[in-house]
Amino acid sequence: MQKLEFRYSFKSICFIGFFLVAAFSLAQTPDVFRAEYMLMPRNDAGAKLSRIKLVTNVPIKLKDSHNLVIGGEYNRLTYDLDRSDVQLSTEVLNYFHIIDFNLAYVHRYNDDWRLIGVLTPRLASTLTNRLGNGDFSINATIGGFRERLNIDKPTRLVVGIAYNSTVTPRIPLPFVYYEKRFHPKWTYVVGVPKTGMKFHLNDTHLIQTEFILDGYFVNLQNSTILPDAGFASSISSSAALATIGYQFNLSKVMSVYSYMGHTLFQTGVLRDEERNDIFTINDDPSFYFRAGFRIGL
Q1: DSSP states along 241-289
Q2: Is 204 helix (H, G, I), strand (E, B) or coil?
Q3: Which of 82, 131, 135, 228 has the maximal Cβ count within 10 Å?
């Protein structure tokens, strides 16, 4: 029972992290465009995972300090599993697609605080058949963002609640994020999904360490049969990672970055129609590499 409670808690934290990223980035400097590649090389469990991420957002200014941000995010995950103890359909477990459509409303409450609402319909599927109800979910975030830059030690704070229809329990869950530049060259970040330290060499070069929570949930349109386990109708993954990276600012709004690290905890499982875990396909540690290009505001 203790193991089950920990697993659900960890997954919930991962999904809260996705909401926090959306709320924080939309409130601060939205990604007008981002292109990113991630690789987790094959580990002792025979699992190899790569991801291509594309993000675009269009901020729209309204009157009276109101703003809309309309955008989307596409993730294409390639899962390559090489195990001799079980035979799984490569057609079902090879390519996963996660598509988010984001609609955010930002209201400037006063000089420090902005109120944020984010609605994110999500398509997460193998896209091998026609779309069905299991391919769709809904995410929602309500929160506040406080930014104090014109002080000796600038800070940013995000607080709120987040709801995800694929998370157990299906109730809104709170989140918090805090960032402080306590020294001209140092910034610390405390929150979910990212906690870490930033070292500002200058306005162009940045070195950063991170502790990250990551994960995904995808519907399997073609259920796969597992020996002695039944039918799997979805796949989910949760991971905790420690990374170190470098960012080069091409301009005030453009940057390139790269990170490397290792998982501290990882689990990838197949689930039945009731979303019970029925088969573990990957629970071994992995190396982690990520690089990308970003245009912000």
Answers
A1: EEEEEEEEESSSSEEEEEEEEEEEEEEEEEE-TT--EEEEEE-S--EEE
A2: coil
A3: 135
Which tens digit of pLDDT belongs to each residue from 11-25?
444 444 444 444 444
Q: Of 131, 76, 122, which is closest to residue 103 (Cα–Cα)?
A: 122
Determine the residue type at 174.
Answer: P
Prediction pTM value: 0.85
- Nearest 5°: the CA angle 212, 217, 219 is 165
Kindly report whether the peptide bond that precedes residue 41 is cis, defined as omega within 30 degrees of 0. Answer: no
pLDDT over 70 (residue 44): yes
Q: How far apart are CA 94 and CA 73, in angstroms?
A: 20
Three-state DSSP at 104 gives: strand
The tokens of 107 are what? 């209201």
Output the pLDDT for position 89: 59
Long-range contacts of 87-91, Cβ-Cβ distance < 8 Å, separation of 24 or more: 88/224, 88/226, 88/281, 89/222, 89/224, 91/128, 91/222
Q: How far apart are CA 30 and CA 23, in angstroms?
A: 10
Helix (H) or strand (E) holding 294: strand 287-295
Q: Cβ distance 251 to 262 under 8 Å?
A: no
Alpha helices (runs of H) in 84-132, residue ranges in sequence order: 90-93
* Pair 94, 78: CB distance under 8 Å: yes
